Amino acid sequence: MSSTTIAETAQDLFEKEILEGLQAVPKYLPAKYFYDKTGDAIFQEIMKCPEYYPFACEMDIFQRRALDMATAIMQSGTPFDLIELGPGNCEKSINLLRQLVWNGAEFTYIPIDISANIIDFLRSQLPVDIFGLNVRGIEREYLPGIKEVTRTSRRRKVVLFLGSNLGNMPPEEALVFCRKLRCHLKPGDIAIIGIDLKKYPATILAAYNDKKGITKRFNINLLHRINRELNGNIDTAAFGHFAVYDPTSGACKSYLVSRADQQAVLWCEGRQEVVQFARNEEIYMEISQKYTVGQLDQLARKAFFKPLQHLYDSRGWFVDALWLAE
Predict the structure, then answer these.
(1) Residue 84's closest CA among 64, 103, 100, 71?
(2) What burial letters (b/e) apply to 72-92, b meaning 16+ CB within 10 Å?
(3) DSSP assigned state of 237
(4) Distance (Å, whole) CA 211 – CA 52
(5) Strands (DSSP E) along the chain, which ranges?
(6) Nearest one of 173, 242, 250 to 204, comparing CA atoms
(7) Where are the domains of the chain?
(8) Distance, CA of 3 to CA of 263 (rounded, Å)
(9) What single DSSP character describes residue 33?
(10) Which residues are paired to 267 by β-bridges?
């Protein structure tokens, strides 16, 4: 498939899924579309803001425990593909990449992301930062990207799914995803899953409702993207941001709420579409699901993985769990 065809397919899917979400009752938008070039930059701001602890916690793990990860990964002594789903700028996993190179591991690093901006950056920058690193970036959604790797390489697989990205799915969807992931792996392959753990509710909620409003800008940027790519006229200034956390279920959810009645026009699939927003109507944007370690282990077993090891940050707020495909 040519790069042009891939781009056209991605744009068609964007138009289809955005329109479906804005015409649904209640309205929603797929969180994967947060990450255009501007969204990537805003998310870097989020990761640095004081309230957003998940980034600092997982960075702590990768800085302190990279050797432990590398040892577990290299135990069999065979070459492997290190696949990272949603790598961002690789600021955390670069610690593991360096450790593996220093240890003489024979591997190819394969970041998979729908953001062309991210993939282009990693392809060009990582070989400069880490001499000898072999990088093969894939611009795809996660599972189709893994399918492509398994079709073209018979090496064993190590999959990184960090940043509590698995938490961006409700638990039932996370289980389906993990089972599909397992279907692409062979016995002996490894998955390293980064998950935010349940903790004091106010700490969690503050991470998704920061005082400077960076998270609000991140959410609103998706409306700007829709206006730009679908020739829309959504009044972005008429939306507020609202986050809520339920400590019982572990679900932290983010919404945009229209402060006024408005009608917007979008161009999708070559035709004009009208979307109505009622005053105080919400758009569901994202879930950030929190787990206990026991719940995470249970998820692994239900998806036919064996929990191998738990690597915690120094505060015990976040875990990178190593799972073995059985």
Answers:
(1) 100
(2) bbbeeeeebbbbbbbbbbbeb
(3) G
(4) 11
(5) 27-28, 80-85, 107-113, 138-139, 156-161, 190-196, 239-246, 251-258, 262-268, 271-277, 282-289, 305-312, 318-325
(6) 250
(7) 3-34+213-289, 53-197+292-325
(8) 35
(9) G
(10) 272
Determine the Cα angle at 60 with ends 38 and 253, to 5°: 50
Per the structure block, which two tokens stand in for 29?
A: 């938008």
CA–CA separation, 171 and 178 (whole Å): 10
Position 52, amino acid: Y
Q: How many CB atoms lie within 10 A of CB 19?
A: 17
| 82-106 pLDDT per residue, tens | 999 999 889 999 999 999 999 999 9
Q: Which fold has domain 53-197+292-325?
A: Rossmann fold (3.40.50)
pLDDT digits (tens, 9 = 90+) for 200-246: 999 999 999 999 999 999 999 999 999 999 999 999 999 999 999 99
